[in-house]
Structure formats: structure tokens, C-alpha cells
Amino acid sequence: MAATVSITIVGRSYEVSCDDGQEDYLRALAAEVDHRAAALLRSVGQVGDARLLVMVCLLMADEIAELRRNKGNGGAEAAAADAALAGGLDTLARRIDAIADRLEKA
Questions:
Q1: What pLDDT, on a 0 to 100 scale, did the predictor assign at position 78?
Q2: pLDDT in tens, 25-57
Q3: What is the C-alpha separation between 5 and 13, in angstroms, rounded?
Q4: What ranges do the domains of the chain cover?
Q5: With contact defined as beta carbons under 8 Å apart, do 59 and 34 qualify?
Q6: CB 17 within 8 A of CB 2
Q7: Among 1, 44, 50, 96, which is most exposed with the fewest C-beta within 10 angstroms?
Q8: Phi, psi at residue 14, to the nearest 5°?
Q9: According to the 3-state scheme, what is the secondary structure of the chain?
């Protein structure tokens, strides 16, 4: 069953679906995105919502790439970490797509 969570990113509210029990996790993710977006707005000034979303995603993807380069784990631990990261990225990508769709319609 899916739950619906209201999140706010740089002052705009969005209703996002997630699996039951994942509501607090989704709110924490949204808070991180909101924090990064607000910091980016302070440094680059006002940009469109879609452009801001792309910039935040690129910054987060850069951090993920850096973590991958520096993880230093080998074998099964690295494979398990990669699988978990891939699953998380897939979920995040779907959520980002949904937010982008909402931004385009707004």
C-alpha cells in the first residue's frame, strides 16, 4: 500500500507517494534536497524551478560519484553497496521525475 507525504522544497509543496513506513525517510530526503536547493539559490540567485532541480541533482550525482571513487571497499561488500545505491538512485529518479512533471504543470 502507498502513503502520500506532503513535502516542501524551496517554499513549494508537493504531494509524493511512497511505500508505507517510508514517510519519515522521504521527509528526511526532502529536507536534504530543500537545504541544498536553498543554499544553491543563495549562491547563484533566482533561477527557474526546473533549472534549480537539475542543478541540485547534478551536485548530488557528483557527490555520489565521488563516494564511489573513494569507497575503497572490495568484493561482495562493494557489490552489495552498489546494488543498494542503484536501488536508491532508481527510487530517487522516479521521485525527481514526478516533481519535475509537477513543476512543468505549475
A1: 65
A2: 999 999 999 999 999 999 988 888 888 889 899
A3: 10
A4: 2-105
A5: no
A6: yes
A7: 1
A8: -135, 145
A9: CEEEEEEEECCEEEEEEEECCCHHHHHHHHHHHHHHHHHHHHHHCCCCHHHHHHHHHHHHHHHHHHHHHHCCCCHHHHHHHHHHHHHHHHHHHHHHHHHHHHHHHC
- pLDDT band at 82, cuts 50/70/90? confident
For 31, half-sphere exposure in the C-beta direction (CA atoms, 13 angstrom radius) is 6
Q: In 3D, which of 9, 8, 7, 65 has the Cα closest to residue 41?
A: 9
What's the chain's length in residues?
106
Indicate yes or no: pTM above 0.70: no
Q: Residue 1: pLDDT band by 50, 70, 90 thresholds?
A: low
Based on the number of CB atoms within 10 Å of its own CB, is 80 exposed (0-12), middle (13-18) or buried (19 or more)? exposed
Torsion angle, CA of 102/89/63/82, rounded to 10 degrees? 180
